[in-house]
Design brief:
- The complex is a heterodimer.
- Chain A folds into two domains: about 290 residues, Gyrase A, domain 2, CATH 3.30.1360; about 80 residues, Aminomethyltransferase beta-barrel domains (Elongation Factor Tu (Ef-tu), domain 3, Beta Barrel).
- Helix content of chain A is about 20%, strand content about 35%.
- Chain B is globular and about 35 Å long.
- Classes of the chains: A alpha+beta, B alpha+beta.
- Chains A and B meet through strand 1 and helix 2 of A and strand 4, strand 6 and strand 7 of B.
- Chain B: Belongs to the GcvH family.
- Chain B: The glycine cleavage system catalyzes the degradation of glycine. The H protein shuttles the methylamine group of glycine from the P protein to the T protein.
Chain lengths: ~375, ~120
C-alpha cells in the first residue's frame, strides 16, 4: 500500500510534555508534532474519540502550546500595536480570540488572550511559539512590559457537553463560568487557571496547571466514565467541523484576517482607529474588499477533499478558482468536510464548484460554517 | 493465505484470487472512511493503483498484487468503509482477480514470513 499523504514529520530532537508517560500507558500512538512527541490517537481511534467528545467529554493534552504572561504599565496599548483586537476592552476574568499581524496584513499566528487580575495570560500555537515570543519581546519589552514564557505548567482541555458536570465534581464553582470566562480554581489542591473555552466547537474548559499536579488531575478526570483521552487526530476533525482555523493550513503569514473572515475579532474601535501592524493593508481590504475568501466546503460524494485540492468553476475545463486548506472526514457530519479559499464572487453559500481529486473533478458546494452547531454556554 | 510487502493478503478461491489488506495495515491506517473500487472486467498489471482507500488520517492506494483481470469487487465496503477495520482479513475483502500466472503466488510471503516482515 502506498501512502499518498502522511502527517507532517519533523526531524531532530522531540520534546515531551509532562503527560508523555500517561499517554503511553493509555496506549496512545505517539507522533512528532510541532517539535513535540504527541498522542495522535488512543486505542479508541480517531472516529470514536471524535464522537465521544461531541457526546460526553474528551480530555486533551495541549501542553505543547505556549503559555505566556504579559505584565506592566501600558500593556494593553502595547499589545494592541501587534494584535489588532480590542485588548483594552477586555475585562478581568474574560478571554478573547486574537491574532498577530505582519506589515502585509498577513496573520503571524492566532492566540487566546485572557485577563487575569493584573496581567494578561496568552496561549499561542506550539509551532509558532518561537516566532510569537520574538514578536512579543520586540513589540512589548521596549515599552517596559515583561514577557514571561511559562515553564512548568501543563495545559489540558476538557471538552464536550458533559465537561461541566465532570469538572464540577472536582470544583463546583466552574458551573458559574460562562463561555470565555477565566478563573483561578482549586483543583485537588493545585492552583489551576481555568478558561471556559477550547477548540472543538463544544462547551468545555482549558486548564493550566502545575506540571507536578497535571498527571494526578488527568487520572482523576479519566476515572469518570464520561471522560476519554482524545488525540490530535480527533482534535483536528473536531475543529474542522467547528469551522475553526488551523494555523499553517487555513491561515498563515500570507493570509489576511479579512480573507480569513476573522475581522469579527477586531471590534469596532480597532477597525475605526487602526494603529496596528499591517493596518494600512487590512483597513484597505475592509473598505475595498478582497479577491478571495475562506469558506466551508461540502463535497457531494463520500471522498474526502484534503488540503491542497484545487477548486475549479466547471466540471471540465474552466478556471482554477481556489484551493482546499483543511479537509477530511467529519465523523459527526458522517461525510467529508473541508475549508478553503475561493474567489470572492464564488464565496456565496450554495455555489457549486469542483475539486480535483486524483485527477477527477468532484462536485463540492460552498457551505456555511460551522458544519455542526456549537455547544458554547454563553 | 499469501502476503505482499504492500500489506495485502491473497487467498486462492477456485481459479480466482481474493485480495484484501492485512489487519496490520488496517490498524496502521486507522478508521477507514472511503473506499473506491475499480470496475470489474479490467485488465491490470502488477503494481497498478487499483483501489483508493481513505482513512481519517490519509489517502492510500492499493496496488494490484499480480498481473490479471479484476472479476469482482466488494461493494459492501464502499457502502460501509468501517468494515475494513472490523474484519480486514475476512468480510472486508477488496476484489477477486483472475491471475495470469498462478505460480507467481509462490513468490509471495507466507503468514510466518509476513509476521517477521512487520515485526
Amino acid at each position: 500500500m502506498a501512502q499518498a499523504t502522511t502527517h507532517d514529520t519533523h526531524h531532530g530532537e522531540l520534546q515531551d510534555t509532562c503527560l508523555n508517560g500517561l499517554h503511553r500507558e493509555l496506549g496512545a500512538r505517539m507522533v512528532p508534532f510541532a517539535g513535540y512527541e504527541m498522542p495522535v490517537q488512543y486505542p479508541l481511534g480517531v472516529l470514536k474519540e471524535h464522537l465521544h467528545t461531541r457526546a460526553a467529554a474528551g480530555l486533551f493534552d495541549v501542553s505543547h502550546m505556549g503559555q505566556v504572561i504579559l505584565r506592566g504599565a501600558g500593556l494593553d496599548a502595547a499589545l494592541e500595536r501587534i494584535v489588532p483586537v480590542d485588548v483594552a476592552g477586555l475585562p478581568v476574568g474574560r478571554q478573547k480570540y486574537g491574532y498577530f499581524t505582519n506589515d502585509n496584513g498577513g496573520i503571524e499566528d492566532d492566540l487566546m488572550i485572557a485577563r487575569r487580575d493584573d496581567h494578561l495570560f496568552v496561549v499561542v500555537n506550539a509551532a509558532r511559539k518561537g516566532n510569537d515570543l520574538a514578536l512579543l519581546r520586540r513589540g512589548l519589552e521596549p515599552e517596559g512590559i515583561t514577557v514571561e514564557l511559562i515553564e512548568g505548567r501543563a495545559l489540558i482541555a476538557l471538552q464536550g457537553p458533559q465537561a461541566e458536570d465532570v469538572l464540577a465534581a472536582l470544583a463546583p464553582a466552574v458551573r458559574d463560568m460562562r463561555f470565555m470566562d477565566v478563573a483561578t480554581v482549586d483543583l485537588q489542591g493545585a492552583e489551576a487557571w481555568v478558561s471556559r473555552s477550547g477548540y472543538t466547537g463544544e462547551d468545555g474548559f482549558e486548564i493550566s496547571i502545575p506540571e507536578s499536579d497535571a498527571e494526578a488531575l488527568c487520572r482523576a478526570l479519566l476515572t469518570d466514565e464520561r471522560v476519554e483521552a482524545i488525540g490530535l487526530g480527533a482534535r483536528d476533525s473536531l475543529r474542522l467541523e467547528a469551522g475553526l482555523c488551523l494555523y499553517g493550513n487555513d491561515i498563515d503569514s500570507g493570509t489576511s484576517p479579512v480573507e480569513a473572515g476573522l475581522t469579527w475579532a477586531m471590534g469596532k474601535r480597532r477597525k475605526a482607529e487602526g494603529g496596528f501592524t499591517g493596518a494600512a493593508e487590512i483597513l484597505k481590504q475592509l473598505e475595498q474588499g478582497v479577491d478571495r475568501k475562506r469558506v466551508g466546503l461540502k463535497p457531494e460524494g463520500r471522498a474526502p477533499m484534503r488540503s491542497g485540492v484545487a477548486l475549479f468553476d466547471a466540471e471540465d475545463g474552466g478556471e482554477k478558482v481556489g484551493e482546499v486548506t483543511s479537509g477530511g472526514f467529519g465523523p459527526s457530519v458522517n461525510g467529508p468536510v473541508a475549508m478553503g479559499y475561493v474567489s470572492e464572487a464564488l464565496s456565496t453559500v450554495g455555489t457549486r464548484l469542483w475539486g480535483e481529486v486524483r485527477g477527477k473533478r468532484m462536485a463540492v458546494d460552498v457551505a456555511a460554517l460551522p458544519f455542526v452547531p456549537n455547544g458554547f454556554k454563553r | 493465505m499469501k502476503f505482499t510487502e504492500e500489506h495485502e493478503w491473497l487467498l486462492v478461491e477456485g481459479d480466482l484470487v481474493v485480495v484484501g489488506i492485512t489487519a496490520h495495515a488496517a490498524e496502521q491506517l486507522g478508521d477507514v472512511v472511503f473506499v473506491e473500487l475499480p470496475e470489474p472486467g479490467g485488465e491490470v498489471s502488477k503494481d497498478d493503483e487499483v483501489v483508493v482507500i481513505e482513512s481519517v488520517k490519509a489517502a492510500s492506494d492499493i496496488l494490484a498484487p499480480l498481473d490479471g483481470e479484476i472479476v469482482e469487487v466488494n461493494e459492501a465496503i464502499v457502502a460501509d468503509p468501517g468494515k475494513v477495520n472490523e474484519d480486514p482479513e475476512g468480510d472486508a475483502w477488496f476484489f477477486k482477480m483472475k491471475v495470469e500466472d498462478m505460480s507467481a503466488l509462490d513468490e509471495l510471503m507466507d503468514e510466518k514470513a509476513y509476521r517477521n516482515f512487520i515485526s
